[in-house]
Amino acid sequence: MKIASLFCLVFISVGCAFAQEVDERLLSKYSQQELETMIATNSNQYDILDYALDNALYVANYSDSKGGSFETISVNPESLPNFIELNLEIKDRNQYFKIEGEDKLLVVKSTLVLNHEMGKK
What we know:
alpha+beta
């Protein structure tokens, strides 16, 4: 009986630990259950999304004369929101968006780039 009680206590403690680790900003896109499952089954995917909240976006200079056409996005390049607030996904490749009214691109880093950056920290 003591072993069963101990097991339940450990199980509940682990469950609470997962709940505490969830970044609330991710809850606007993912449910608590989805995030807890992600942490339990693929913690690297969760870690990338969590890291991406503050590190996935950056602004680069752009000139029409250099060629290339990109989907346009309306965002203040001086005060970037996170990728979820822009309704963007983190993908296996970098994504580029022309910032409306600016000679700048919004770059969304790929999972590979984010994973590489996380490895350096």
